[in-house]
Description:
The chain is an alpha/beta fold and about 260 residues long. It has a domain at about 85-250 and about 255-260: NAD(P)-binding Rossmann-like Domain (Rossmann fold). The protein is built from 9 helices and 7 strands. It has helices at about 15-30, 40-50, 70-80, 105-135, 155-175, 190-195, 200-210, 220-230, 230-235, and strands at about 10, 30-35, 60, 85-90, 135-140, 180-185, 240-245. It has a 7-stranded parallel sheet, with helices on both faces. Helix 5 (about 155-175) links the parallel strand 5 and strand 6 (about 180-185). Helix 3 packs parallel to helix 4 (about 105-135). The mean pLDDT is about 95. The chain binds NADP nicotinamide-adenine-dinucleotide phosphate (NAP). InterPro entries: KR_dom, NAD(P)-bd_dom_sf, Sc_DH/Rdtase_CS, SDR_fam. One of its GO terms (molecular function) is oxidoreductase activity, acting on the CH-OH group of donors, NAD or NADP as acceptor. Pfam families: adh_short_C2. This is SDR family oxidoreductase. Belongs to the short-chain dehydrogenases/reductases (SDR) family.
Amino acid sequence: MTAQDKGVVIVTGGASGIGQALAQGLLDEGWRVLGIDVQPDRIDAARREMLAADTSMLRFAQADVTDETAISEIVQDCEAAFGPIVGVVNSAGIARDIPCLDTEVDIFRQILEVNVIGSFVVARAAARHMRARQAGSIIFIASVSGMRGNQGRVAYGASKGGVVTMTQVMAVELAQHGIRVNAIAPGPIETPLTQVVHTPEVRSTWESRVALRRYGRPDELRGTVGWLMDESRSSYVTGQIIAVDGGFTAMGLPGPWQQQAGTA
Ligand code: NAP
């Protein structure tokens, strides 16, 4: 790494929604970015859409985050040919909105596999390299559904609750190696995922429960990620779950203007 070279941040789910926006934000702030995503077509589209002033700063790898062998190889190749990994943003994830009594065990397992195990696989692979350098910042994208009982989220909410606890455990264990581990818990964010999962009724309910009365944009998470990634600005922050949720988790008794659903 040269003096100006900030190192590589791995962004899983980096070819869509929140992950893509965060990857672009990190590029804009001078990090090199290795995006990992599962669909080749989406990776090609993201590559075209993303503006890396210097295209040598952005790479993509196609893999399923639950594939331990593939992730281990990607991380090794990155260290050897792209640069030292200084950060991870674990944004790859899947969601379903299903009442608990209708939730099949198979779908529950699938959600846990991607959201919890997949995030762990990537974080562990990167942390093993960070340990040697005694530095690094790992960010999990959790969810407010991992902090509150949101109807329809028995599997998704449990998976994100698992991510919350995983963040705290890894922060405690990896502190001795100079690695900080935090999570961001977004509220409803306008992405391809919510466009599929959120019906008009669900959308209207979210808008009535968010103090700011609107969905967030993926780019509204960039500031928190940039801050957590930058050791000089967040060196004493680890093990935290930071809600970026328009006030959803803060909201108690709403004002009259907040009770009119769908008027955001
Ligand atoms: P998104 O637009 O669907 O982006 C997620 C990306 O991850 C997609 O490209 C997806 O590919 C990919 N992915 C899924 N499973 C994968 C796997 N096994 N291996 C590698 N890549 C995989 O979703 P998003 O809304 O940006 O969500 C990003 C993260 O934020 C998720 O963890 C989500 O739970 C969390 N989150 C989102 C919101 C929200 O309101 N949007 C709120 C709270 C938390 P496919 O499309 O092929 O699945």
